[in-house]
Amino acid sequence: MTERVTLITGASAGIGAELARVFAANGHRLVLAARRADRLEALASEIAAKGGTRPIVIACDLQDSSAGDKIAAALAAEGVELDHLVNNAGFGVFGEAIKRDRAEQIGIIDVNIRALTDLSLRFAEQLVKNRGGILNVGSVAGFLPGPGMAVYYASKAYVISFTEALRGELGPRGVRVTVLCPGPVPSEFQARAGFMPGVDSAVLNVSAADVAKDAYRGLMANKRAVLPGLGIKIVPFLLRFFPRGFILNAVGRFQMRKR
To answer: Which residues are catalytic?
Structure first.
């Protein structure tokens, strides 16, 4: 019988690393994919030292269009199939879209949208066969327009919409499909994006470890969406009461304060 594994992208830090720890603690054999091989190897050693099966490590940059092929080839070489896919890899950059480097912003689309879509579709039949699950990491940003991080916010809106549509298609075939929409989480994301955490992080903050635990429970319970923390849960509800133009202006003013 072919061994079943859980693939987690962006597993070298932050929410991705915590998701790896949670899945491993619940008996999943892992495949860890990210750019930084040294961090993946360290995490794999940590998991093995705690009694888990040592994860398979795939060092690759999901911004590269060949990343999906590389991951698929590595899994085939190991003789394993997916029963869970966790599309966690993603990044954003802060600043006005027309002033930021265009190639860098296209890179956001490559990682946050193209790679997530590629892996979800590429391994869908394995997930159906093994009656597994997909966890896509979105963001509360996906419910909002995002002046100051326009491409990132838009990419997360795609993740929410695409995940819900996949749920409609794959759910009847026995696959759990869940979107995780955290708010600000202390991690390397802010440094890479180019801003320091502000009052939003202080008020809405949920640790990466807690986000990962909520995400795992939500996926296993087959929830449509997981919004960790009370403050984040009420955001989509409150948005119903304000015109879109008002929200656009409010987010723009708030984001620009981070400069």
So the answer is: 152
